[in-house]
Each structure stands twice: as C-alpha cells, then as structure tokens.
User: Fold Junctional adhesion molecule 3 from Leptobrachium leishanense.
Amino acid sequence: MAAPGVLLLLLLGCSVAVLAVQLSTNNANPVVDEFKSVELSCKIHSTITNEPRIEWKKIWNADTSYVYFNNTIQGDLKGRARIQAKSSLVILNASRTDTGKYRCEVAAIGDDKKIDELYITLTVQVKPVTPKCTVPKSVPVGKSAVLHCHESEGYPRSTYSWHHNGESLPADSKADPKFVNSSFLLDRTTGTLTFSAVNKGDMGRYYCLASNDAGSAMCGEQVLEVYDLNIGGIVGGILVVVLVLSLITAGICCAYRKGYFASRSRSTGQSYKNPAKPEGVNYLRTNDEGDFRHKSSFVI
Ligand SMILES: *[C@@H]1O[C@H](CO)[C@@H](O)[C@H](O)[C@H]1NC(C)=O
Ligand SMILES: *[C@@H]1O[C@H](CO)[C@@H](O)[C@H](O)[C@H]1NC(C)=O
Ligand SMILES: *[C@@H]1O[C@H](CO)[C@@H](O)[C@H](O)[C@H]1NC(C)=O
Assistant:
C-alpha cells in the first residue's frame, strides 16, 4: 500500500531536480596576481534545455554591470575574457580593476522560474612598487630619529620591514636581546621606524622592504650617521677661545701700561696728553697718571 506513494514521491523529487537549473563552483573566492589568467568557475549541473541563457554580471559598490550578455563579453573585459565549458568566465589578463564580486546567472529559456545564480568574489593581487624611503643623514647620539617607507600600489596593502646592515629589525628593539642597546619601534603597516634615542650602534646602512602576497620591492640602501655631541670638546673649545681673548686683552693692557701706544703718540711729536687716546689711558690708569708717565719715559 505504501510502496506506490513512496514511488510517486521519488518520481516527483527526481523530476523537480531534473527540471531545475543547478549551478556549482570550484572556487567561490579566487585570488590571482595582476596580468595572470583566472577562471571564475560556474558549472551547470542540470537544466531542461540544451541552450540555457547564461549571463555574468559584476557587482561593484552599488553598481551592477554586464560582463557576459547575449553570448558576448561586454564592457571593460571585452578582448580579455572568454567563456569556457559553457558557463565559466575566464579572464585572460587580470587587471587590478577586475577585483570585485561577480554573479553567474543561468536560466532555462522559456521558463523564468528555472533559474539559478551564484556569486564569485575575485581578488586581483598587485605587486608592491619600489617604496619611497627617507633616512636622516646624520643624527647626534641620544636624539630621536624617524625613518619612513611607503608605497601605494600594492594590493593587498603592503607591510614593511626595515633592515640595518643587512639584518632584519624586529618591531620592537626591546623584544630582542640582540638590540638591547637600541631603542626603536617599527610600525609594519605604515613603514615608520622610530628611534627614541639613537645610539652609536644604530649607525650604518638601512633599506626597507614592502611586501604583500603578490611580491615585494625594496628601496636603495641609505646611510645613517650617528655622531657624538661632544660636550667636553665644546666646553674645551670655549675655554680656549676665552683664554686667547684674555691673553690678547692682557697683551693690550701691558702695551698700554708700558706706554707703547703713548710713545708712538709722542714720537709723532705730540704730547702723551694727546686727546686721541684719553679713554685708554684713563681706563688703564684711572688715578695715577704720574706713574704712567714715569713708566712711559722709563721704557724710552
Ligand atoms: C545579440 O547578438 C546578436 C548577434 O550575435 C545581435 O543581432 C542582437 O542584436 C544582439 N541583441 C542585443 C539585445 O544586443
Ligand atoms: C596585459 O595587460 C597589460 C595592460 O593592462 C599589458 O601591458 C600586457 O601586455 C597584457 N599582457 C598580455 C599577456 O596580454
Ligand atoms: C651594548 O653596549 C654594551 C656597552 O657599550 C656592550 O658591551 C655590548 O656589547 C652592547 N651589546 C650589543 C648587543 O651590541
């Protein structure tokens, strides 16, 4: 009694499955490097007609545009894509602008209800280009220093590493005993390497590497000099200058005291009371002009 019922149900189930359009994909999230070929797989499992209507659309932000319509590749992909195995889309030379969500739609002609669709999310990876790097030329010991590295082409976004004399630096100098004498932080997402206080050991050659899943690119090495701000030397230099100035002053004083300038005045036939140099005389010998006079004549 139950057997015919079960049979009927089975028949109904089969016929429903046969009548419907059914799609599947090998890979709903393909990833490809720019300029390479990629398949957006959309396979028809069953349909009632041999000539179903196949369409591909691209959904980007709020826009939907035709990619394959009326048996022709449309728009931007024209000449760069083809249909393979009836309903899969192959992009032959992927461009970074191809990144996005695609919809494969297959309809059994003549019956709009017999339709299925599936979504493929394509990621086109772009290699980083040579990053722009800035390294300060010369920094005094103990001062802060910032090294920059950046490039904007890479997709997914590049991450950065800095290398000092060929050795890769950790994100935090405190995390590695090898860098115990350094004090830097590296932000791998921005490419900025910040020294809070440079050390003699930080001197040397630096380069930066920008990398993502598609590849990497580096900037040319640049040299960072670290010099001593020699306080002892500076103080010594100032002392020497002060000493030299004192000696000169003392020399001039002596010359005045010994009447060198006065005698010169007198030799031109003028008195040493010559108003040409009164301040000097007064300054040196404020209230003892007699002594001055005496010494002057003594020298001569
Ligand atoms: C579809 O393509 C055929 C030629 O392949 C053309 O004659 C027809 O006008 C096209 N239809 C539309 C709606 O573009
Ligand atoms: C792919 O496209 C780029 C431009 O987008 C072009 O320079 C390159 O020659 C193309 N490669 C091939 C194999 O067609
Ligand atoms: C850190 O500095 C000290 C003292 O100048 C030195 O002895 C040591 O070797 C340095 N360590 C490293 C890893 O350079």
User: Anything to note?
Assistant: Residues 5-18, 277-286, 288-300 have pLDDT under 50 and may be disordered. The domain at 20-125 is CATH 2.60.40.10 (Immunoglobulin-like). Residues 70 surround 2-acetamido-2-deoxy-beta-D-glucopyranose (ligand 1) (CB under 6 Å). The chain has three domains: 20-125, 132-227, 231-268.
